[in-house]
């Protein structure tokens, strides 16, 4: 039993260090790793814009973009709100991803959720912890994003 | 057999739960009040978004593309953003929304919205408010019976309405001005807290509380130039309305204002 638990923990550790641990703004994508999409705001640009606007951003890391039909995705938290940022190569994928995300929010019962695109970058913010009941923080995050 | 039945019950429960969960995502087009049981106040998100809750009062909304759009005065809900004063019914001229057909605000009397009329809209700013001076689309009359209920939704609400000088109402204003008994000449409609207050300068002073949406359609309707006076007891209401070739008749057919 103990061996099994240790094995699972070790597997999680390896997965975390390889996958989720990959920080934003790092070196160029290696072979097989997703690369940023040209011609649209990059995920790290969005995060930096939020930081520049005074919002504490934490834990942003690249994730598997195929789950959201994207070329590149990153997720983390900003101002206490969950944020997913994805870069796309075509409009159809953005529309499908937005619907996918909103459907997930519906099933999950997310208190507040917004999915907004600018060019071919999609930002999806979800306030699961009701940390922004008036939506003012979310609105400022979106305004900042729209200016990119 | 028993296992099969249990599995079936489990599946049914799961499907029911899933359906219930999906129903919890409600789409809003822009800013809106938050129901009291979800904390109250106002949601300031100007982009289309979803919440896990529906509107507290559907009379304050229009549905467009499966999204709720708040058409009321945000002031009573603690809204502290930019706001613009209007008098009477008018087209919704929010640059943030495209309905595809004319959509009207049916709020009577002085009220606020967060949007300023777009430049091409036919509004005049006089006496402290925007007045709609264009023609109403037929849809305004068709839908009035359904959407005028927004005034009922606001009737029990206490809030500060804008102060509007109705004596300088634009001649082209088609709507109804609600004032008080014996009001002549200079009248200022204001509402410091509860409802419209009419300060009468001539004849001598009176301060009458008249709720916007006060019942109209009394027995006496007297045309006086461009002014029509209705005096339904026990409250007296003066309605000042400019002639519009009979198009306003729907107001009287529907009775209340």
Protein architecture, described:
By secondary structure, chain A is of the alpha+beta class. Chain A has a single domain (33-146), classed as Protein Transport Mog1p, Chain A. Chain A has four helices and five strands, in the order ααβββαββα. Chain A has a five-stranded antiparallel sheet with strand order 1-2-3-5-4, sandwiched between helices. In chain A, strand 4 (112-118) and strand 5 form a beta hairpin. The longest helix of chain A is centred in the first third of the chain and has 19 residues, at 2-20. The radius of gyration of chain A is 16 Å and the shape is globular. Chain B is an alpha+beta fold. In chain B, 16% of the residues lie in helices and 27% in strands. Chain B is built from four helices and 19 strands. Chain B has helices at residues 2-22, 138-147, 150-154, 249-254; strands at residues 26-28, 32-33, 42-43, 49-51, 61-64, 67-70, 84-87, 90-91, 104-105, 110-113, 123-126, 129-132, 177-178, 184-190, 196-202, 207-210, 221-224, 227-230, 237-240. In chain B, the strands form seven sheets. Chain B has a four-stranded mixed sheet with strand order 10-7-12-11, with no helix packed on it. A four-stranded antiparallel sheet of chain B has the order 13-19-18-17, with no helix packed on it. Chain B has a three-stranded antiparallel sheet with strand order 14-15-16, with no helix packed on it. In chain B, a hairpin with a 2-residue loop joins strand 5 (61-64) and strand 6. The longest helix of chain B is centred in the N-terminal third of the chain and has 21 residues, at 2-22. The radius of gyration of chain B is 22 Å and the shape is globular. The termini of chain B are far apart. At the A-B interface, helix 3, strand 4 and helix 4 of A face helix 1, strand 3 and strand 4 of B. Strand 4 (112-118) of chain A pairs antiparallel with strand 4 of chain B, so a sheet runs across the interface.
